[in-house]
Automatic annotation (TrEMBL):
The chain crosses the membrane at residues 139-158. Residues 29-48 bind DNA. Keywords: DNA-binding, Membrane, Transmembrane, Transmembrane helix. This is TetR family transcriptional regulator. PANTHER family: HTH-TYPE TRANSCRIPTIONAL REPRESSOR SCO4008, TRANSCRIPTIONAL REPRESSOR. Pfam families: TetR_N. InterPro entries: Homeodomain-like_sf, HTH-type_TetR-like_transc_reg, HTH_TetR, Tet_transcr_reg_TetR-rel_C_sf. Residues 6-66 form the HTH tetR-type domain.
Length: 197
């Protein structure tokens, strides 16, 4: 039985995501990707135009930007908008550790592929900034600098990724994505001066 074109493309993307997360872009070859996917190496050029094309396709396929684009944040109350975005960001990083790790690598290395990552992230964090500014204008949020407020929100939304490094500190308490998201949102909104009902 032959495999359909979408099946082999998805297998290549899944294998690439795993290998890019484990070994980085430079440490992953097209041959390794195809071996892991059980695919002919010529299919990388045919479907993606090369390794860089595979890398970009991984973000297009697995980062839920279209899901976020379907939400009209301008119509949302700033509190609800922050709650929605922060929760989705945390769930994404919690549920797809490979993609999350790929993003971290490129940001830390400031590699030529950083722009692929930034094209995805700027839109998401830009929405958070807009919600912060609108919330401040409406007298809902209280902060001095929008840049500092955004950095604090980013820090709270992404800090759970480092929990694995401090397992001894957390003892045996296991916290799932939903609990982390709820606590992070409460923490962020409290820091912005929102009183709990």
């Amino acid at each position: 039985m032959t495999q359909t074109e979408p099946d082999i493309k998805m297998r290549i993307l899944l294998a690439a995501k795993k290998l890019f997360a484990q070994h980085g872009y430079s440490g992953t070859s097209c041959r390794q990707i195809c071996e892991a996917a059980g695919a002919n190496i010529a299919l990388i050029s045919y479907h993606f135009g090369g390794k860089e094309g595979v890398y970009q396709a991984v973000f297009e396929q697995f980062f839920p930007i279209m899901e976020l684009k379907s939400v009209n944040f301008a119509d949302l109350d700033p509190i609800e908008g922050i709650r929605l975005l922060v929760s989705r960001i945390i769930r994404l990083t919690y549920q797809d550790g490979e993609l999350s790790f790929m993003i971290q690598q490129e940001m830390l290395l400031r590699s030529p592929r950083r722009q692929i990552v930034m094209n995805v992230l700027v839109e998401v964090w830009g929405q958070v900034r807009s919600l912060l500014l609108r919330g401040k204008e409406d007298g809902i949020f209280f902060f001095g600098s929008a840049t500092n407020a955004l950095v604090m929100v980013m820090s709270a939304a992404l800090s759970h990724k480092y929990m694995v490094n401090f397992e001894d500190v957390f003892a045996d308490e296991k916290i799932g994505a939903d609990n982390i998201a709820a606590e992070a949102v409460r923490f962020i909104l409290s820091g912005l001066g929102v009183k709990e009902p």
